Amino acid sequence: MAVDLARVRSRFTLVALILPAIVVAAAVVIQALALPSLPGVVATHWGFDGTPDGFSPAWTVPVFTAVLGLGLPAVLFGVAFRSLRRGEHGAAYRLLGAVALGVAVLLSTLMTWTLVLQVGGADAQLPALVVVSSLLAGVAVGAVGWMLQPHAPWHPVATHTPDALPLAPGERVLWTQAVTVAPAGRVVLASAVALTVAVAVMVAVLTASTWATLLAGAIAVLLAIMVVASSRFHVRVDADGLTATSAVGWPRVAVPVADIVSAEVVNVSPMAEFGGWGLRWGPGGSLGVVLRAGEGIRVQRTNGRSVTVTVDDAATATALLAALAARRSA
């Protein structure tokens, strides 16, 4: 059944951009109407026990609601829509739309509720119910956003399966290539690292918890290391099979010749198939070293799972893998 790409794009735009804008606009209006009844300075950050420990001018709350509530969905929309216009689709894009809407609802609900609680100079203590309810509202509306978008799974199609290269008995062969993450992937990965670092800095500045600061910092450092380690891979095909090794030595993906059932050249979409760039897991337990869109090697393993590696000259590597597997079977 053909996918209605126009409907996929229009529903994604509705869920990821239009509905978040409506939600945020409503929240900002409510906050603006409440400003005359608020003190000049209000609580804007709370400790784990609900006691306020950070304060800002009241007018900053609607400003930050607008900036964050519109900015985050706009970033997610921008990441995805260019690829959707090229004809890509799939669960990853549907999830991005749902997340954009859910984040807008979460931020709008939480920031509006915490502001309205302080109308008339009331106690700024933050009840746990406010946080829990805001989270549940974000998840629930995000789920609605998922359902509003059509089910349009991505079905990758092999471009071709090259004939096995002729190999003489005992002949030793080697094929190597290097692949670097594409500019689009670099932007997305760098943005994720920058956002994590920003969160870590905010935790350090706004909280007095050493453990929370250390945890947020450790997460930021770990993510940065993973991004660097997944930015460039060396791909090798030899008598041992297929190997893709990070330029820093780890991670490393290896498929022995004895484990290869078949090999084919495929046209890979990182977002549609794997939900992003780098070392990724896809549907059915498939594994991908996907640093860019375009041609790649896909190897079917004896356990029924597949390994995909995006790399130039994939046809030669695939033909060589087929020859090595056939020689071993013989």
From TrEMBL:
The keyword Plastid does not apply. The keyword Membrane applies. InterPro entries: DUF1648. Keywords: Membrane, Transmembrane, Transmembrane helix. The chain crosses the membrane at residues 12-38, 58-81, 93-116, 128-148, 187-205, 211-229. Pfam families: DUF1648. Residues 22-65 form the DUF1648 domain. This is DUF1648 domain-containing protein. It comes from Microbacterium marinum.
